[in-house]
């Protein structure tokens, strides 16, 4: 028999609370499709509330389609799998969180801002803007790592930059970015990514999404852009806004499938070979070579190598960038400092193959560089003095400790016996395949009911949801140490 | 008889110098079409150089089409009007300057960077990058005003911002920009431009060209964009790169012509009603109202009000923005701090009509704000403490003194008797209509020969060059005080 703890209702109306509880149980799979709800009278008596209250709650569930009323028989639960998105209209705060959480899970260089966007959304629309704080633990976000950033060092360097460069900081910034910064980036790429590039190939801009806009103008809007599936699907918003054609191309365990890519007719492909989003694997060299061969087969084919987060891979040396294998001027390398420094720093860069540099200068260089001089000089100095390298090591350690802590707790729970780790050395997150009868929606709802924000691999897939069901994306960067045990315990409890 | 001062040849070869001199005289109209050049022998004797040198110079002129050889009669000058663009292939440094100067003349918010772009171009392509310094006086540029910027105050505020905000500076910036800055901009717009807008309508971004990109995504790429003619024609590069349709729409003395606008089929029109580029006039209220009526006639019609440089109008109070008349949510106001502060500050903003704000948040807000937090907080503080207002007053005074100095000198020259001033209170530049038989190309070449960089209104016109011939654009911001008399004297000498 259904019953709920009325003490937890908080400031909600009684009927609203009851509605919430039942709805959550339906979405969570605790009440199964076609199950009969207790009669209004029975439930009212059982919970010591008025029949009118139960009636109002049932009415609301009816209106929203969670239950159906069968004449003279009572209320029955509908099959509501995959309904999460539709719930928005109900306007309850939990939905809001769910949406925010979902967005927060997207964390390539290009998406780090989405959170900002959403926060503002909420503000403008009268929301509370506190989405994140309401979770007991958020397994979708790696935002708080910025707290490890050596701000006082950064501030010192900014002050020095202001004193040392003086009026020079007011002058026009060259369109590709200031020379010293491009030199430091070239050095960094050589040491960390094995890339031998000239500073003249490097374009600095206000974040990777900004540079992507330039890139589209460079490569043209007549082509077809291909995207990994699963992958960073939100990229399609950018494609749509630019009026581009795009295709989803399935991946296998080694990366994007060449047969599917050929079939798609695409001429530009966006991949993250160093750290697949969201799975985290590295594309092996054989597949990289196949992809490069594909590019070489026809004029105008290009590979955009999104190298976000490759710096944080644990236990192994970072894999050299795909760009290092490119002898045919086909790879455009893209990365950002918003992930390696802190979220508000709007500095990304791309490395163009030499043949594209000239075209860039001809077609797109009339745009100004979008990053302020002082920030560019400060960043160059931060890198030159070795702080950047040191910070990356520190962040890697931070992620390693978080991950080790999480795994240690996980091993103590019943969940450990029914799950498999995938890419646990990817850094920033790993995947957890759970042997469970629950659907992904049910998993998310159950987790939400326990104060956990979760996202599943299926959210990053177009089609083929069957194979990818029951795989959780576990980002651990934002789980406070003191909550790790409890958070993992609650996670385990989701699966009974 | 032709003769040239060989002492001025500098490091050029003798024949190269001779070629340059003759070519310049041809382009300048000092040697007329069909005029016969002296025979090689005569010129050689006259200038005390070898016949071979003259022969080489003539040969070069012949190859490039400046002269023709008529059998047994000698060398005759061809009609070469309008050849300037084609000269590039000759590869002489003066051409390079001419190009740079031309670009430097473009100075709306959107174009301030072009210089940077060109500088880099030159660097990459092995040029010297010093274009500007080679002119005795550059009448096309207002770049150096940044030297008036109170850098030490700015640096102090940046330092304070770093100390006061601390870690907060690392956090994600809301997509529209930080609240305090948007509040200060709203206050500024109220006081200076008569606009009553909410900070929620303001979007901060890395320069107006960046915001323009967002705007295109917001308004859609299916429409037709209209541009004033004459006007900021380089805008078409941005339209082209975004794959948009656009039309040139003629202006009359009051601004864009409504009949021509209707005929164009455009639904978005880009205007600068507060300070027409490059003419400088203010669009009178009647025309503004007509334009607003046009926008109101059909769904999806919008007016982009580019308000660049309106702050610097002399002698009168700034005219309220067109946005203040907009009751129908049709005007998008655009401005930049790159012009009012200093060139390297990549901060622009737009004011959306309330109805577009929501659409913006839905369609484009997934992009991050492209301006770093520290710069936004510093700018907010700079404005809040009244430094921005004070700086604008100072810059206005700077322009006024430059202009007054120039006019005082102009009155002492013969040119004064054959010219008319147009929009001399526009600030930053005025137009000078000269009664002269010279074509615009000849004017520019003669001026270049005297070390002056000049641009003409016809360069900003599509078609209709006849009516706009002989009108010079006189930007005075970069003429050093000590050179004003000499510069104006040389300008007068161009017209004999």
Fraction of residues in helix of chain A: 40-55%
Can you tell me the CATH superfamily of the largest domain in chain A?
Answer: Type I PLP-dependent aspartate aminotransferase-like (Major domain)
Largest sheet of chain A: 8 strands, mixed
Oligomeric state: homodimer
What is the total tally of β strands of chain A?
A: 16
- Helix/strand-derived class of chain A? alpha/beta
Q: Any idea what the CATH architecture of the largest domain in chain A is?
A: 3-Layer(aba) Sandwich
The CATH topology of the largest domain in chain A comes to Aspartate Aminotransferase, domain 2
Low-confidence stretches of chain A: 82-132
- The first-to-last residue Cα distance of chain A is 19 Å
Gyration radius of chain A, to the nearest Å? 25 Å
Give the averaged pLDDT of chain A, no decimals.
Answer: 85
Strand order of the largest sheet of chain A: 4-11-10-9-8-5-6-7
Task: Please work out how many helical segments of chain A DSSP would assign.
Answer: 17
Number of domains of chain A: 3
**CATH class identity of the largest domain in chain A:** Alpha Beta
Form type of chain A: elongated
Give the largest interface: A-B, 66 and 66 residues
Proportion of β residues of chain A? 5-15%
